[in-house]
Amino acid sequence: MRIFTTLFAVIALGPLSIFAQEETKDQADKALQPAQTRLPEDQPRAATSPSAAATTPTTTESSPAASPGQPNEAELMKQMTEMSKLNENHKLLASLSGNWTFKVKFWMNPNPGAPPQESSGTGTRKSMMDGRYFVMDVTGKMQMPGPDGKMKDVTFKGQGIEGYDNVKKKFVGSWIDNMGTGIELSEGTYDGATKTFTYTSEVEVIPGMKTPIREVLKLTDKDHMMLEWYETQGGQERKTMEIAYTRKK
């Protein structure tokens, strides 16, 4: 449900591979030699004959065993299947699907008490990949300074994807919009007592200027949410934006 994730900063400025461990050819050849051919050098070697060789038991090659601390193939597939299942965290994200309107306040002026700029827009959120992820597309109008420094109306578009990673045991998200070319990646947690998501990430709108971000999304009720966006600048965190969401009836 995050939007405008790079907005204020702009204004202000594989596939899994499984490797089975195998013996080398030399090791395999050595393992298949009769025991009498691997005696210490200081002991006489037993004489061999065609008849003796014919009666020597052969060694059957077994399947490679898993390395210590690693699951075998069957256990690995079982764990992967378990990690792909939906749970209560995915159901929580699913409850936020639908159509929304939002009102944005953001503070360009860092001075305390400075009035915020305001804008508004709409968003549509829906599930994908059988409910494992949720995508939200937003559109809004806002005032931004142009190349000449004068304020003008700008159409904002953005898209966010969120999910719950069973392996990391964290909520995860990505964000793109028409105000930049980067992809913001974030991780978060949910506090059921306060019905609040908390995400952390980092944005870099110009080379070398990395800004830590903390987002707090409060689920007021099933039809209302409030997002607060905090940036750490000069070693101090300050709130630079808030977004109030209302579900469309």
Instruction: Tell me the CATH architecture of one domain.
Output: Beta Barrel
* Count of DSSP strands: 10
* Low-pLDDT ranges: 3-63
Neighbour order of strands in the largest sheet: 1-2-3-4-5-6-7-8-9-10
User: Strand percentage, roughly?
Assistant: 35-45%
- Return the CATH class of one domain: Mainly Beta
Element-by-element helix/strand order: HHHHHEEEEEEEEEE
First-last Cα distance: 18 Å
Gyration radius, in Å: 30 Å
- Biggest sheet overview: 10 strands, antiparallel, barrel
Approximate helicity band: 10-25%
Shape: globular
Q: CATH topology of one domain, which one?
A: Lipocalin
Task: Find the structural class using helix and strand composition.
Answer: alpha+beta
- The CATH H-level superfamily of one domain is Calycin beta-barrel core domain
Number of helices: 5
**Arithmetic mean pLDDT:** 81
Quick rundown:
The chain is α+β, with helices and mostly antiparallel strands and 249 residues long.
How would you explain this protein's 3D organization?
- The chain is α+β, with helices and mostly antiparallel strands and 249 residues long.
- The protein has a domain at 87-247: Lipocalin.
- Helix content is 15%, strand content 45%.
- The chain contains five helices and ten strands, in the order H-H-H-H-H-E-E-E-E-E-E-E-E-E-E.
- It has helices at 7-12, 25-32, 50-55, 73-83, 88-94, and strands at 98-106, 117-128, 133-145, 151-165, 170-177, 184-191, 196-206, 209-221, 224-233, 236-247.
- The longest helix is centred in the N-terminal third of the chain and has 11 residues, at 73-83.
- It is globular and about 65 Å long.
